[in-house]
Amino acid sequence: MIEFKNVCFAYDKENILENINLTINDGEFIAIVGRNGAGKTTLMKLFNGLLKPTSGTVIVDGLDTNVAKTSELAAHVGFLFQNPDRQICCNTVKDEIEFGLKCILKDKAEIEERCQSIIKSFGFTAHKDPFSLSRGERQKVALASVLALKPKTMVLDEPTTGLDYKECMQIMEVVRDMNSKGTTVVMVCHDMELVADFAKRVIVIGDKGVLADDECKRVMTNDSVLRRTSLAPPQIAQLGIRLGKTFDGILSVEEMADKIESLKVGGIL
User: Which of 75, 80, 133, 261 is 20 to 30 Å apart from 154, CA to CA?
Assistant: First the structure.
């Protein structure tokens, strides 16, 4: 569990985030959305101690990030940066995956076992230079190197930026699979279609605070919040709104799609 208690953060004495109160429960899949510059990435860096609150407290699995070492927090929270080139630092895929493992494990046999398991799972060529790979493949290497550490929580900063549709789905299916196996996922994402497809809960950041925190289907049809943050809901939600429908705890995105399909079949649309 991760808890934010009255958290504020300031750059150069100017508050970016004010009085943030959140609880992230184990096993959740959460998307954090909002305008550019709203403080989404800043919020995420507070999850693992890369940034410390100006005031307030962030508790990660019982550890206070104000006093816990970043290396200690890294065993609990994995972080995938938006740009893999800012994360990859080794000359081979195998070395990259082993790098983090060597920081937390002493047993060479376990390091080798975890490394080979990840390489096999992703279908990597162990001795390939990661910087010779495509943008999508480099992102997969960065993701794999974090997954090898088996963090309880995975924090993803725009994990599909710059990827084509196939690469995007490959990354997100890996993320969905690890969530199904119990890993908590917190993802900053600007793609609302992607958010609707994968996230169960959505937190909207704006005006230095939390504007909305609810089930995905409710946030996607909260016209007031979406307008306030200039967020465009996925097409299925837009069509539902135009039809005068609201999910309002009754219809999910999938159910609305089925409803619209039935209207097409019936010749109404």
Answer: 133
